[in-house]
Amino acid sequence: MKLRIAIVGYGNLGRGVECAVNAAEDMELVALFTRRDPKTIKTASGVPVFSVVDAIAKKDDIDVLILCGGSANDLPEQTPFFADHFNVIDSFDTHAKIPEHFENVDKKSRTAKKIAVISCGWDPGMFSINRLYGQAILPDGRDYTFWGKGVSQGHSDAIRRIDGVLDARQYTIPVENALLRVRGGENPELTTREKHTRECFVVAKEGADLKKIENEIVTMPNYFADYDTTVHFITKEELERDHTGIPHGGRVFRCGKTNGGKNSHIIEYSLKLDSNPEFTASVLVASARAAARMNAEGLCGAKTIFDIPPSYLHPASGEELRKTLL
Amino acid sequence: MKLRIAIVGYGNLGRGVECAVNAAEDMELVALFTRRDPKTIKTASGVPVFSVVDAIAKKDDIDVLILCGGSANDLPEQTPFFADHFNVIDSFDTHAKIPEHFENVDKKSRTAKKIAVISCGWDPGMFSINRLYGQAILPDGRDYTFWGKGVSQGHSDAIRRIDGVLDARQYTIPVENALLRVRGGENPELTTREKHTRECFVVAKEGADLKKIENEIVTMPNYFADYDTTVHFITKEELERDHTGIPHGGRVFRCGKTNGGKNSHIIEYSLKLDSNPEFTASVLVASARAAARMNAEGLCGAKTIFDIPPSYLHPASGEELRKTLL
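YS: structure for the whole thing
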């Protein structure tokens, strides 16, 4: 019998999950829940659409619910709420608030005897696992994480909030020389500015003061002030022609030594993603498989990708995996 | 209380484990067991050395036994034998025989209510995990594994068995153009010859027929015939000066598509290792930590790295890992 998956939320991530579930042979997508009027939603796959208020009534027909809301406003409420009734998966990515979110979700899912896998995706997610494996294997060493080249949604939004800006797209770009130094085993101490640059494509309102906008961007604390930032003003048409994709990626390094420092080892994990939300969605869907398996074994509570044996993510049996992939 | 680790076998791998255990703050190395006369062994760290026949008598003083023998002759016997008494770790790497080895070890460790983690290292090991994660996340895709540049012990040994050869070192080298095509998202079909070349450094006996040796190498079935192979004859002094290291490494790729083929994603995991045995040893030691934890939870039987939740490999608590690495 196939795993019955449902989605809450139909933005970019929800659409990505829809694709990924339909690409998984051991899963079927049984419902999409939305806060909008269900009649206004046209899904790519034709999955039935319901109001989110009807979700709990359908809980016996759903094995895992994948929550596709945002980390700022949706997931802190939604994940604990649904964890009380379903096995759930989310992509909560506000790093500093993960411990609090974990505790809130854990209480609910333990009471409900369900599994909740939080903070899935690639960072947090696959990058986190690689930081963990790297440290566990090479305790005498250093981690480096580089992001990009890719679109940062948060930084693009920050530019859009500036007076006089119609639209904007921000790319995070790793500094090539820093990458080379790390890959070369130099173990450099790198400042924020030495690791990444930021490139912004901005559509301004007619008559806006471009110098003022540029200055507001490059001096914006937390977002841009600590980076070398380039600002390009372009037309709405150029933005739509050249910057509609949502690519991203990056690299995690572990540079470590063994034998009292005599020998060096470099582990590098790299992602080059055409679509950030579709890749994130693919991690969520593999995690849904693991959640269902863990729950079927009687496990419950909040989990992260750190707690999931890799084999639980893959559809094949342990025997098959040992034979073909080990 | 620290984890009490013991080693069986004191070759390159055993020496690597000795270093790695001593570098782990939560472990202590309590014994080294050898088939040689213990009096003849001088260890780097001064750990007590015993005859391997005395190992079982000391089982109550040892939490995990790390087996550092070879896959061809030692581990098929040793791992099931010791799994009957200890939590054990091995690096069994004869890929085709892993299922049989797993079954043999599983029976013993279940009866003994112990954990046996087999086939740890980097391939099998970290490369295998990356093949698994890649397939689980991107089911519509292809895997590629490249090895090198690095010393292949098996191929070096094969050359040494040729008449007229005194010593030899063989390097496996990935073909740069193949790497570029894979990394570029081309998803090429690659033959054995297109993926790797082999470079051999050979010390011949005085008066040996060099043409004949070279021909025997490059036409050797399984080992060299399917590759472009270069042979260099060098002196014993040159071999000792330039080729005593045991570097290795390689790359695992998963190139996959989402949204019905619309978007491409490339995952690349790469290792650059100054010392193959010391890195392998570091994976064995992290796995020993996981084995002890799994056994303390009441689990038993044979496991592979596929079955180990990543958090079990790292000394920090789940709470700490979520806070600092997720």
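YS: worth flagging: The radius of gyration of chain A is 22 Å.
IM: good catch. Also The longest helix of chain A spans residues 276-296.
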